[in-house]
Amino acid sequence: xxxxxxxxxxxxxxAGGPLNTLHFxxxxxxxxxxxxxxxxxxxxxxxxxxxxxxxIVEGHSGNSIIWVSTLQAAHTLISxxxxxxxxLWDLSEGRSEVVDSVWTxxxxxxxxxxxxxxxxxxxxxxxxxxTEEIKIIELPSKTPVCTLVPDAKVGMxxxxxLWQPDSGPGPLxxxxxxxxxxxxxxxxxxxxxxxxxxxxxxxxxxxxxxxRLRGISGSSEKTLxxxxxxRQNNLQLQDDxxxxxxxxxxxxxxxxxxxxxxxxxxxxxxxxxxxKLKPLAVLQYHTDMVLSVAFSDHQDPxxxxxxxxxxxxxxxxxxIYNEGADTG
Length: 328
Prior knowledge:
The protein is mainly beta. The protein folds into 2 domains: about 1-105 and about 285-320, Methylamine Dehydrogenase, Chain H (7 Propeller); about 110-240, 7 Propeller (Methylamine Dehydrogenase, Chain H). Helices cover about 0% and strands about 50% of the residues. The protein is built from no helices and 28 strands. The strands form 7 sheets. The protein has a 4-stranded antiparallel β-sheet, with no helix packed on it. Strand 4 and strand 5 form a beta hairpin. The radius of gyration is 19 Å and the shape is globular. The mean pLDDT is about 90.
């Protein structure tokens, strides 16, 4: 007998707008939290024990918020809005105030990427005012580090990912562009290391596994493209995954490197084994495009969750493949 189709263990309602981005914070303190940000400029901080919004933070002048994250420094939230601002929030002791902001000048949908370089210090990468440029600054000082502009015409920057390699200097940055290209940048040298043409359409999203030096990207078409870095930091295209329906908003790899989730324009979340890209499950609940997916960072593997946020203004939470299942 085939397994019954999975259902959400619960859903969160009341966000009041399309759910563009999700971020878990479950490893510190007693209360596991999920941050969601909407197209109406609201950030909901959901208490996963009570399954209710503990707090609602309004920002970015009501403009759509496209990215949220937390910094290691306690109670510091960072958000990016379509008002061309990145805001740093102090959420300690019941506060919800913007303590600093960065003007990006970008009107696109490219989400920022943040990398902790030392305790209390981060690098922040974001799409700049010019179509193809990526700017990187240090936080909290806001000192400019570099501006990365490709030599060839690749169109608008669509998605970026900062990461720190285990060996050699760093950090490095992966970027997907409007013409379907992926570029790997050396931030320190401000130079392009390699490129690959991963898609015929714009790269809508990418995610990267620094331990395995392997990544995957999606676009508006029916194909996910997987790729890897060799020892010389050359991008090498690997297998493609053909989807039933076109369009992927976001991709996410679980922290243990076993699962990959995709947010589909067809209202579905698809789950694959990350090792061999074996299809494992199709999660059907939402009534509109799924815009975001995130795996929780619980320390206990049995508590791990997958969250999906949709244009239908709901967040679904799922518990899947937590007990050593063969994910392939």
